[in-house]
Amino acid sequence: MSQPEAIVELSIPSRPEYVGVARLAILGVASRMRFSYDEVEDIRLAVGEACTSVLDRVEGQAEAPPIQIRCLIDPGKLTVEVTDCVAADAKATPGAAGGTHDDVQLGGVLIRILMDEVTADDNGGAGTHTIRMVKYVAR
Amino acid sequence: MNLRVETTTPRENVAVVALTGEVDVYTSPRLKQEIVDLLNQGLTRIVVDTTKVEYLDSTGLGVLIGGLKRARERDGDLRLICDSPRILRIFEITGLTKIFDIHRSEAEALEALK
What we know:
The complex is a heterodimer of chains A (139) and B (114).
Chain A: E1 6-12, H1 19-31, H2 37-58, E2 67-74, E3 77-84, H3 101-114, E4 117-121, E5 129-136
Antiparallel strand pairs in A: 1-2, 2-3, 3-5, 4-5
Helix pairs in contact in A: 1-2, 2-3
Chain B: E1 3-11, E2 14-23, H1 28-40, E3 45-56, H2 58-73, E4 77-81, H3 85-93, E5 102-103, H4 106-112
Parallel strand pairs in B: 2-3, 3-4, 4-5
Antiparallel strand pairs in B: 1-2
């Protein structure tokens, strides 16, 4: 696999008030690439949903580990990896982030519709869970 | 990253909840509480105005779905005002345009509630 042209990394606390910070950062990264306005908004929403899905799995933990966001920038695509240290098989808890089972499902639906490729990885049982999302720059 | 919630009651039993800003995992509980409070006050016909909403995610959608369900349990209704193509698209791609009545203006929404 070739190295990306650039990498931007961000770590945010696993708290609802910081998901907006992640969205702002992604907005900055995507806006520098040749995405349309709508595509930038798609990426922002998808990354926000990925971060929110982590909060749903935190289950009100007092000291939940931070969420790591990694943007791999290539001329033709943006790959965003959202990684957390919540167990991959942890069930999303309704209400943990003020949401419901419906929210969790809607979030997953939105991510898959808004991004071109979406994969989830438990990183070989390393105790971390990564959602990897790719958006290709339209020719 | 903030949300302002302003509620007016242009007619008896009808509340218009105007939102400004972002509806996400951090701010959506405020909207949820507002809807719950209105229903508990007997205001069962609610119009949520999203014309000044800059961001809406699944938690916001979930609050609106929950509000619609609670309103209908009280023989009421919850309708939306949305004139942003971006926000409307979120309802479209999640299929929620089949669930919600969405209007382009407050006047149109209030007319439909007569």
